[in-house]
Design brief:
The protein is α+β, with helices and mostly antiparallel strands and 158 residues long. It is built from 2 helices and 9 strands; from the N terminus they run H-H-E-E-E-E-E-E-E-E-E.
Amino acid sequence: MRKRGAKDQGKKILRIIYTTLFILVVGWFVISIIKKENPLKILKGGFSKLSDNSTLSLQDQLAEKDSIIAELESRLAAYEGNGISRRALVIINSETLNMRQGPSLESNIIQKIPANSEVRLMYYDTNTYYIEGESGKWAHIVYAGQEGWVWGNYIREI
């Protein structure tokens, strides 16, 4: 019985497909009669409109997005440094400042920077953090040839 039900369902699906195709073909001929044009010309025109306009539109959109991405990348490169770094001094009330692997107090300390040392400021993290009730940003720096992160409130650009 299951086989018979599957056959009946398959026949129904085929009938739906054939009916849909029939309606499309009849509609195509009706449109050609209304427009008084060759049905093949209408079909060709419809496909060319689809391919030309949508492709052109998509190409324009893609070019626009590419230009936006290129501009943002150049801004980010300038922001992050890319060879453009600023000089800064470590200003703290203790003897050293911890330089860490990442912008977090949980990150490993990779170096201790003496107070009043000069560092190269590459860029600041985009997020604002609160440490001991004070807001600030982590700064990505280079000191003694090593890159790392320090709490940005402890450095001053010179």
